[in-house]
């Protein structure tokens, strides 16, 4: 019979919480049930009660979900202590086995608030009916019982110490099963402590969340076609997957020393052997011999702010200098991607996004996932934007916003649901324009919008 | 890096080079052997993707003769270990890969192949 577990969550990246839980549960084949009431699974709140078949499943989730702070065996909750105690008494069968001689520690804590010592003691005393006979052990107890008060976040208001004490939204009670050990990886993968990174590197916590969306695990093959300095390769490799990376600009992956920067960073994490290979190429002119190769594709596509989206081809007539370089390159290619820099032309974001989904449909194995960031303009975004880039055989799994105010980026997870084989995309803008749907997504021409400071259409006509 | 698993997946992609464009031919290679995690399930899952003849020929050219000419039916441990070594532990660090058809040369430096095409090679 399923039992209830109390999940304590970090209150960050709220929209990533449920997709991460879904992904890791799918990875390990863990059945779970979320609370029925939408208010009780509200991702801005610190606690959520989840039904699972086994305690071991709770542990597995706590060891892999980046956003889980801890998991508890659920004993009770309520909007008052009376309600909580009533439930807790009914659940006696869950904790009766600890009554006789289990050493324990009792904690009373809260989120966004500090409970005065005196009231903490009072709360503990009110649990006396549980009649625990074991010794109280503050250092290494056999079990830890925790009572949490959930306070509403009060933005912008400074509260006097202990102000509003006791005015919590809900109070929860349970036995600690496991602290969320995956959260420590946020420190381990800290970009600033990495031996190689650049201005396109992705922050550690987000890279880890992306890696979880890919279902990375031993035996999987994962690909980043816009590899840059390789931020997502490290956590995916750490979770056991083998990773390929490619980039149009080899210098991003190499850095300045002989051993490529990506390999140096991977060595630091003990996973150099999992970076299968790095290669320099334009993903729109790629050398993959066949499709259905990868379990996942994870990437942060260039959207023209820090690292311009470009593709081989020319925008306008080449300069004499560039022509000379081209000629030299074809006569005697240089191995290290330098000094030859092929002519490139800009790559509009909505085209890139559509191409990426088509490419993923070709390169992913059936059931494989595409995980990538799509930047977008907050005021203009509509849900249909995502659908403008979808194609037959691909299905949206999750779409989580990281909000930066006037713009944001959405971590999009798409699954290849078809077993059918599709040809590689043509990457031909001419062909595409003919079929283009009439809806223009907010991420179209994102780069221009970014540099114009996201003026709305209305502002423009006014001005 | 370039490992033979990768080499087995890369074909020349220059414009109009569609036949006889695989496998790319290694030249002037510098090899390194580096250990990788042995995962039999991964190998078994990956086998259908391998162009077997290209893999065996390339391995032999680089001095490894451990693989049979025909893909065996029975995947015993010894075979899988050899396959693991060939696919994942032989790294081509320097040298180049040439297209058998159009003769495009893809140079390799510090283990990274430059697969970029020049302007006249893109369609
Ligand atoms: C936002 S960055 C990716 C950053 C990366 N996640 C990291 O950790 O550094 C985008 C990368 O895409 C590359 N790029 C741009 N256009 C490309 C193309 N057509 N094909 C392949 N790579 C491309 C850029 O050189 C850049 O390194
Ligand atoms: Zn060729």
UniProtKB/TrEMBL annotation, chain A:
GO terms for biological process: methylation; tRNA processing. Pfam families: Tmrp11_N (PF25904), UPF0020 (PF01170). InterPro entries: DNA_methylase_N6_adenine_CS (IPR002052), RlmKL-like_Mtase (IPR000241), SAM-dependent_MTases_sf (IPR029063), TRMT11 (IPR016691), TRMT11_N (IPR059073). GO terms for cellular component: cytoplasm; tRNA methyltransferase complex. Transmembrane segments: none annotated. Residues 4-180 form the tRNA (guanine(10)-N(2))-methyltransferase TRMT11 N-terminal domain. It is an enzyme of class 2 (transferase). GO terms for molecular function: tRNA (guanine(10)-N2)-methyltransferase activity; tRNA binding. SUPFAM superfamilies: S-adenosyl-L-methionine-dependent methyltransferases. Residues 193-312 form the Ribosomal RNA large subunit methyltransferase K/L-like methyltransferase domain. Its main location: cytoplasm. Its EC number is 2.1.1.214. It is found in: Cytoplasm. Keywords: Cytoplasm, Methyltransferase, RNA-binding, S-adenosyl-L-methionine, Transferase, tRNA processing, tRNA-binding. Belongs to the class I-like SAM-binding methyltransferase superfamily. TRM11 methyltransferase family. This is tRNA (guanine(10)-N(2))-methyltransferase. It comes from Psilocybe cubensis (Psychedelic mushroom). The lineage of its organism: Eukaryota, Fungi, Dikarya, Basidiomycota, Agaricomycotina.
Automatic annotation (TrEMBL), chain B:
GO terms for molecular function: protein heterodimerization activity. It holds the Pfam family Trm112p. SUPFAM superfamilies: Trm112p-like (SSF158997). InterPro entries: Trm112, Trm112-like. Gene3D superfamilies: 2.20.25.10. CDD domains: Trm112-like. GO terms for biological process: rRNA (guanine-N7)-methylation; tRNA methylation. Interacts with TRM9. Belongs to the TRM112 family. This is Trm112p-domain-containing protein. It comes from Psilocybe cubensis (Psychedelic mushroom).
